[in-house]
Amino acid sequence: MAYFENVSKIQYEGPTSKNALAFKFYNPEEIIGDRTMEEWLRFGVAYWHTFTYDGTDPFGHGNMIRPWNHLKGMELAKARVEAAFEFFEKLNAPFFCFHDVDIAPEGETLRETNKNLDEIVDMIEDYMKTSKTKLLWNTANMFTHPRFVHGAATSCNADVFAFSAAKVKKGLEVAKRLGAENYVFWGGREGYESLLNTDMGLEQDNLARFFQMAVDYAKEIGFSGQFLIEPKPKEPTKHQYDFDVATGIAFLKKYDLDPYFKFNIEANHATLAGHTFEHELRVARINGMLGSVDANQGDPLLGWDTDEFPTDLNATTLAMYEIIKNGGLGKGGLNFDAKVRRGSFEPEDLFRAHIAGMDSFAVGLKVAHKLIEDHVLDDFIANRYRSYNEGIGKEIIQGKADFKTLEEHVLDMKEFKNESGRVEELRALVNQYLLTAF
User: Fold this and answer.
1) Known catalytic residue at 279
2) Region 134-160: what's the mean pLDDT?
3) How does pLDDT run across 103-138, given as a tens digit for each residue?
4) Gap between the Cα atoms of 256 and 243, Å rounded
5) d(CA 59, CA 79)
């Protein structure tokens, strides 16, 4: 059965194309620097938003028109797999991602859930034998079911901790079987509402124990994918332990887990934490911990996780600047953890949305590469910090200065010659590159 019969394979037609179902800027075979666009961008399709999201919001029932909506249970799960691989092929998507409950329904017990999961994984494995699309990462949903009301690895209920560990054990086995390049931990409810009823020390210790168990089991079964932590500051809990990249780094270093983990950075989570997307990417990059990206954007007028498809070219440019500086994303990729708006309810809108996101990051890639190639920002920054190349600045960098020598240097100094940071000029330069890149 064809689920998207009105859509042919999406082709690159160039910036002047009027075809809504064609790429205008994303040309997977185009060489940028030392690799193709496809190799730089490593796009992934999020199973949950693309194939399971029905449009439900706090004020309305689901309204998405999907050719599989009339089915239920395992028949629905199987139809979604068929639709997914048709979608991947027509979009020419190199990767996809999923939570365990996205692909198979839960049973009354974990044993029944695992049986359902195995049946669908068998089906996915068969499709992957003839598909170019690979598994970027999978993960366990440990936030939707009522059992996770107090968290998973940080739950006050040891039975829930054990259940969560069993889910991740199964998830790692699935990851190895399907050749996942990463495994993601998103602590949806790993946080607290109030310190009045929370043993924060015990919860964080238990979270570290949980991560160590995952590391140990991955070694035991020979899973060699990269472990990723996805930070988010709030929602659904008021304060989550993986608040942002800096908080995550501190946690990992405290428990000696930093050799095993990198970060999966989501743009909308960065803004919820009060940061820019590029800030979170920069913090991860300069600490050698930039692993993968959930590519979306939020709405500046709304204070929650709206998960919109990325179309802000300035944001995609500054994001790709960090990714190129990182040497790429390695085993990671750009996963569209994004959903169509409730008003975009037709099946073809799924393609339109992904095309918009892919084109936006393709623009960002080309502009960022040109900025780096022309040393636009690098030269300005190097000049701005040139005082550390000689004299007292060089002594500071070399570790030869101390408080006494620094005091002696400035004790009789009457003038300090600062220079303009020229932020507006630099922003205008980025705009100039954006407007002249094509």
Assistant:
1) no
2) 98
3) 999 999 999 999 999 999 999 999 999 999 999 999
4) 19
5) 28
Give the number of other CB atoms < 10 A from CB of residue 8. Answer: 10
User: How far, in Å, CA of 144 to CA of 357, rounded?
Assistant: 27
Segment 54-98, tens digit of pLDDT: 999 989 999 999 999 999 999 999 999 999 999 999 999 999 999
Quick: pLDDT tens for 258-286: 999 999 999 999 999 999 999 999 999 99
Residue of 34, 54, 61, 99 marked catalytic: 99
The full length of the chain comes to 438
Per-residue confidence band for 169, with pLDDT thresholds at 50, 70 and 90: very high
337 included as an active-site residue: no
Contacts of 193 (CB under 8 A, 6+ apart): 237, 238
- Nearest to residue 187, comparing CAs of 258, 244, 240? 240
Phi/psi-derived region of residue 327, left when phi > 0, alpha when psi is between -120 and 50, beta in every other case: left
* Alpha carbon 81 to chain centroid, angstroms: 22
SS (H, E, C) the chain: CCCCCCCCCCCECCCCCCCCCCECCCCCCCEECCEEHHHHHCEEEEHHHHHHCCCCECCECCCCCCCCCCCCHHHHHHHHHHHHHHHHHHHCCCEEEEEHHHHCCCCCCHHHHHHHHHHHHHHHHHHHCCCCCEEEEEECCCCCCHHHCCCCCCCCCHHHHHHHHHHHHHHHHHHHHHCCCEEEECCCCCEECCHHHCCHHHHHHHHHHHHHHHHHHHHHHCCCCEEEECCCCCCCCCEECCCCHHHHHHHHHHCCCCCCEEEEEEHHHHHHCCCCHHHHHHHHHHCCCEEEEECCECCCCCCCCCCECCCCHHHHHHHHHHHHHCCCCCCCCEEECCCCCCCCCCCHHHHHHHHHHHHHHHHHHHHHHHHHHCCHHHHHHHHHCHHHHCHHHHHHHCCCCCHHHHHHHHCCCCCCCCCCCCHHHHHHHHHHHHHHCC
Beta strands 134-139 and 95-99 are parallel
Active-site option among 102, 242, 305, 307: 102
Which of 174, 197, 171, 196 has its CA nearest to residue 185? 171
Signed CA dihedral, 31, 34, 38, 43: sign only: negative
Closest CA to 102 of 130, 137, 146: 137
